[in-house]
Design brief:
The chain is mainly beta. It has 4 helices and 19 strands. It has 2 domains: 84 residues, Arc Repressor Mutant, subunit A; 208 residues, Galactose-binding domain-like (Jelly Rolls), CATH 2.60.120. Helix 1 packs antiparallel against helix 4 and helix 3 crosses helix 4. The mean pLDDT is 91. This is Helix-turn-helix domain-containing protein.
Length: 301
């Protein structure tokens, strides 16, 4: 899910949507991956015109493309890069009712962990240590990690609590690009990823797989094609009514059920050994995957 607002950087996304032809392309790609020639034929357009529309959709972050050898030729294959666009308009409420705490947490800034192979982590420039050796999760350079993955276990992050005396949290939102971790990559590799806040299990989201079809839009060029490429942007929200993932209720856990600490918030992403589907976990930072962000943590009053 692309979370956009009225900032100017989102203009390419809005421009990509402002076309009946491009909306038709999105509908076709929702059914299956297609090449440019197939799309042009389906919509009765010339190849150059379709290429222009594909470029607009790519610039808007709505589709991804890759060159594939097939049937003796090279084809530009197109697929969806996101499952939707959510637009947030400016808030006209008084300033004191806007977010009162916001933090962007790099994926390497975990404070506790327990990981089991397959596992590893990397900065935007290089792999940290070696594949499948949990010892490197203690490497000081892990603070610069932009991607990490493990077959089972957890990573935990502590975030300062800057609420003032008398202030009360009404809603907490965690946004992260996340997916499974298969040996290599696998489109179908389900994993039950557990989300915790201050030690309380908020809910479980089942990741469908570990995608390696096409490259992540932000993934560095040195990262080879057989490794994790991108995940799904998940938005976990907890308020006075319950806990939601992408707006879908996942549990009855309310904010009042979470013990509060005066000093910090603790969030944990885990795949326990006793989960029904133990398919690992991959976290993507701002330099990997499809979404230019680290782990976003917001507290609303």
């Amino acid at each position: 899910m692309i979370r956009a607002n009225t900032g100017r950087k989102w203009l390419p996304t809005y421009e990509a949507l402002a076309s009946e032809v491009r909306l038709s392309v999105l509908e076709l790609l929702a059914e299956r991956e297609m090449n440019v020639k197939e799309l042009a034929k389906a919509l009765e357009l010339s190849g150059p015109i379709m290429t222009m529309h594909i470029r607009k959709l790519e610039e808007g972050g709505l589709i991804r493309t890759q060159m594939v050898r097939r049937d003796g030729g090279t084809h530009k294959m197109c697929s969806l890069a996101t499952d939707g666009v959510e637009i947030a308009f400016p808030n006209s409420e008084p300033r004191h009712r806007r977010p009162i705490q916001e933090a962007s947490v790099p994926v390497g800034h975990y404070t506790r962990y327990e990981v089991h192979p397959t596992c590893g982590l990397a900065t935007r420039e290089k792999l940290i240590g070696q594949f499948d050796d949990p010892r490197y999760f203690l490497e000081p350079e892990r603070m610069n990690a932009q991607i990490l993955w493990f077959g089972r276990g957890y990573v935990e992050y502590q975030i300062p609590n800057y609420l003032l005396p008398g202030q009360q949290a009404r809603e907490i939102e965690i946004s992260v690009e996340i997916g499974s971790e298969a040996p290599g990559v696998s489109k179908s590799w389900p994993s039950d990823i557990h989300f915790y806040l201050n030690g309380v299990l908020l809910g479980v989201w089942t990741s469908p797989g570990d995608s390696g079809e096409g490259r992540g839009q932000l993934t560095p060029a040195w990262w080879h094609d057989g490794l994790n490429q991108y995940g799904w942007l998940k938005i976990i929200r907890i308020d006075d009514n319950g806990t939601y993932v992408d707006g879908q209720r996942v549990s009855d856990v309310r904010l009042a059920d979470v013990p509060l600490s005066r000093n910090d918030w603790t969030i944990r992403f885990a795949v326990p050994a006793d989960a029904e589907r133990v398919g690992g976990l991959t976290l993507y930072g701002e330099a990997f995957g499809n979404y230019e962000q680290d782990i976003a943590f917001r507290v609303y009053g």
